[in-house]
Specification:
By secondary structure, the chain is of the alpha+beta class. It folds into two domains: 274 residues, no CATH class; 236 residues, Glutamine Phosphoribosylpyrophosphate, subunit 1, domain 1, CATH 3.60.20.40. 36% of the residues lie in helices and 16% in strands. Strands 1-20-19-15-14-11-10 form a seven-stranded antiparallel sheet. It has a seven-stranded antiparallel sheet with strand order 9-4-3-13-12-2-21, covered by helices on one side. Helix 2 runs antiparallel to helix 3, helix 3 packs antiparallel against helix 4 and helix 3 packs parallel to helix 5.
Length: 562
């Protein structure tokens, strides 16, 4: 399969240079239109969003309908039992707004709730499987908040949720990707009978081409459509949720659900070569470190060093090292911890960091800097933009594929395992506290062009690989004028504060050898490796009067337009 995919890429790229946001389009992944584009991790979900636009809904209506549909069509990655972040910039809004619907720690949580061995490693798997891994879910409140406050009001809640209900009822097609994920998580599914009833076929993995129906999930969505958030956070559904999580060793309570609140936050902001970057602040680290990385790269003539060359790859690797060192030391939920956000996003701080990069050799590892002196006082993603420049980006997750494994009986949705995103020892910025949101890397991002116009909506799944992937694609588009679909198809790299530089295999052998000669330890991962995320984006080409959507073959992504 890998060879076949690579062959198609070679054929696609052999068509010659592509100007502006041109026609490069692997397997029909991309799309262009004059009125609106939806790019999501499932083609059926993108179609849901476009149909909402056709019915007169706005970009928010389309995004929320798409998000609920993704929870059905890609149940391994997100859903009612999870959480996330979204960012909205409507054409008539002076400022963008972030809706933080990240999970939070249950009220009975403690900093030492997971057993650690002498080396500080967790004993067992309670932080990522079973009831004790479950954080208080925020998806339903977050999505409905956005719909109620920014939707067009032309379509009611039932019309927005009906496509998701329909897919849960008639069944989701099992793709190559979903079949592989089910097989990889077979043991987890077997351990929880409610999940096994839905996602296994009489105890065996579903095969490609099969259909998975989930009438319980259809029922849950219908109740939410009729009763709003209270149908989820109070009453029989909440009681069933709490009972199942406790049965599996968890501590979620009815009070945790009833008192959950979304947080409305100001975006993390920055600029890159005249383009304005708007992303999400903590409890996501993604937006701030996305800005930090682009600030560092802005100190170098990337266009001159070249696209996918060793020199440019070296700059990215060193930049990522320093960003991740700062992330590990400073980042946490700002409702609980003071984080030097202004310093981390400062151009002056980035200039200091850029000066540490030696073009002739890599640093062995990076340590956190001092941004304080610059202070002034398995996830999914979808992107939507319409002809008026209304933009929405949503990244949401249940964390690992199939989350905690806990499925709520009678309602068919999977509970998250985002408690695993905390640090399990007391005294760190990201240690567990009741009500605290665990640190995330989700980075739904909007970009304005130098004239202040809506230009790009972008984001990705992929844990800590999220904001590096988003940064690389923004740079590719801005520095090289690369069409969005081609930028998404391009191979990516990833580097933590120390350790090996991870690269996709489609980097050239010359780049690979040159990086090794510089002194990098390079790990080459497979072509189209889901490890590097699944970016979905929309770009507005004002010269052509067209919106271009790009979708990622590392997932089942596809964009649709009209």
């Amino acid at each position: 399969m890998k060879k076949l995919v690579s062959l198609f890429v070679v054929i696609a790229l052999a068509g010659g240079a592509v100007s502006a946001q041109g026609p490069l389009n692997l397997y029909g992944r991309g799309a262009s239109g004059t009125r609106g584009v939806v790019a999501a991790a499932k083609p059926e979900a993108s179609q849901v969003g476009v149909e909402i636009l056709r019915k007169g809904g706005n970009a928010v209506d389309a995004a929320i309908a798409t998000a609920f549909a993704l929870g059905v069509l890609e149940p391994n990655a997100s859903g009612l039992g999870g959480g996330g972040f979204l960012i909205i910039k409507m054409a008539d809004m002076r400022e963008a707004v972030v809706v933080d619907f990240r999970e939070r720690a249950p009220g009975a949580s403690t900093a030492d709730m997971y057993q650690l061995d002498a080396s500080g490693r967790q004993v067992g798997k309670k932080s990522f499987e079973g009831g004790l891994s479950v954080g208080v879910p925020g998806e339903v409140k977050g999505l409905l908040y956005a719909l109620e406050n920014y939707g067009s009001k032309k379509l009611d809640r039932m019309q927005i949720l009906e496509p998701a209900i329909s897919w849960a009822t008639k069944g989701v097609p099992v793709t190559v990707n979903l079949a592989s994920i089910i097989k990889d998580n077979f043991q987890k599914l077997m351990e929880f009978e409610e999940g096994a009833k839905i996602y296994l076929d009489e105890g065996l993995p579903y095969e490609i081409g099969d259909t998975i129906k989930n009438p319980g999930l259809a029922r849950a969505l219908a109740l939410i459509a009729a009763g709003g958030e209270d149908a989820f956070y109070k009453g029989p559904m909440a009681e069933a949720m709490v009972a199942e999580v406790k049965k599996r060793g968890g501590i979620l309570s009815l009070e945790d659900l009833a008192t959950y609140e979304v947080k409305i936050r100001k975006p993390a902001e920055g600029t890159y070569r005249g383009y304005k970057i708007l992303s999400v602040p903590p409890a996501s680290s993604g937006g701030t470190h996305l800005v930090q990385m682009l600030n560092i790269m802005e100190n170098f003539d990337v266009a001159k060093s070249g696209r996918m060359t060793a020199a440019t790859a070296h700059l990215w690797a060193e930049t990522m090292k320093m960003a991740f060192a700062d992330r590990g030391k400073f980042m946490a939920d700002t409702d609980f911890v003071k984080v030097p956000l202004a310093g981390l996003a400062s151009k002056a701080y980035a200039k200091d960091l850029a000066a540490k990069i030696d073009p002739a050799k890599p640093m062995a590892s990076a340590t956190a800097g001092d941004p304080s002196k610059y202070e002034s006082g398995s996830t999914t993603h979808l992107s939507v933009m319409d002809k008026d420049g209304n933009m929405v980006a949503i990244t949401k997750s249940i964390n690992y594929f199939f989350g905690s494994g806990v499925v709520v009986p009678g309602y068919g949705f999977i509970m998250n395992n985002h408690m695993d995103d905390f640090v399990f020892r007391p005294g760190t910025a990201n240690s567990i506290e009741p009500g605290k949101r665990p640190l995330s890397s989700m980075s739904p991002t909007l970009v304005l062009d130098p004239r202040g116009r809506s230009f790009m909506t972008i984001g990705s799944p992929g844990a800590t690989r999220i904001f590096p992937a988003v940064a690389q694609i923004i740079s590719d588009v801005v520095d090289f004028g690369t069409p969005i679909q081609e930028a998404i198809l391009a191979p990516r790299l990833f580097q933590m504060a120390s350790g090996a530089l991870n690269m996709e295999g489609r980097y050239s052998i010359n780049t690979y050898e040159a990086l090794k000669k510089l002194g990098h330890t390079v790990t080459v991962r497979g072509d189209w490796d889901a490890y590097f995320g699944g970016v979905h984006a929309v770009v507005y080409d004002y010269d052509k009067g067209l919106l271009f959507g790009g979708a990622d073959p590392r997932r089942d992504g596809q964009a649709f337009a009209y």
